[in-house]
């Protein structure tokens, strides 16, 4: 627990996020003490998971998204929903959601930069989100997935 708090403080101390749908500021999480960490509600743990996932993706670190997105599937099938989640499950659910949102916001409708496509046609990424994206990540064969692998899984290259 102590190491998770220290990791969160180190990760969030210099992070800023530009898009609206992504967590706008994780600064409130960098000043977490043991006492306040215990008092977090499920939503705050999900935000922590989102911030951890976004920081990992920005720093080109790999994540265990199969495990994280399996929590989303379990939560879908449970009639109590978010009320039945543990703290760890909330963080994992947030990681899955944060990863999907980050990839969608960062790459959807962005131009593909590849030497193969130097034609007059403009090729852009079209990315999946929501339940379809969760199912794609759950079916991945890799345990640890990096940012470019997630982009390749969730986004297709299409002519615009």
- Residues in helix, %: 40-55%
Name the poorly predicted regions: 6-22
Q: What structural class do you assign from the helix and strand content? A: mainly alpha
Shape: globular
Ends: how far apart?
Answer: 47 Å
Side by side, the strands of the main sheet go 1-2
SSE string, helix = H, strand = E?
Answer: HHHHHHEHHE
Strand tally: 2
Strand content: 5-15%
Overall pLDDT confidence: 76
Number of helices: 8
Radius of gyration: 17 Å
Major β-sheet, in short?
2 strands, antiparallel
Describe the overall structure.
The structure is a single chain. With 160 residues, this protein is mainly alpha-helical. It contains 8 helices and 2 strands. The chain has helices at 2-12, 27-30, 34-38, 42-58, 65-77, 87-107, 131-138, 147-154, and strands spanning 123-127, 155-159. The chain has a two-stranded antiparallel sheet with strand order 1-2. α4 crosses α6 (87-107) and α5 (65-77) crosses α6. It is globular, with a radius of gyration of 17 Å. It starts with a helix and ends with a strand. Mean pLDDT is 76; it is low at 6-22.
Short description:
Helix content is 54%, strand content 6%. The longest helix has 21 residues, at 87-107. It has helices at 2-12, 27-30, 34-38, 42-58, 65-77, 87-107, 131-138, 147-154, and strands spanning 123-127, 155-159.
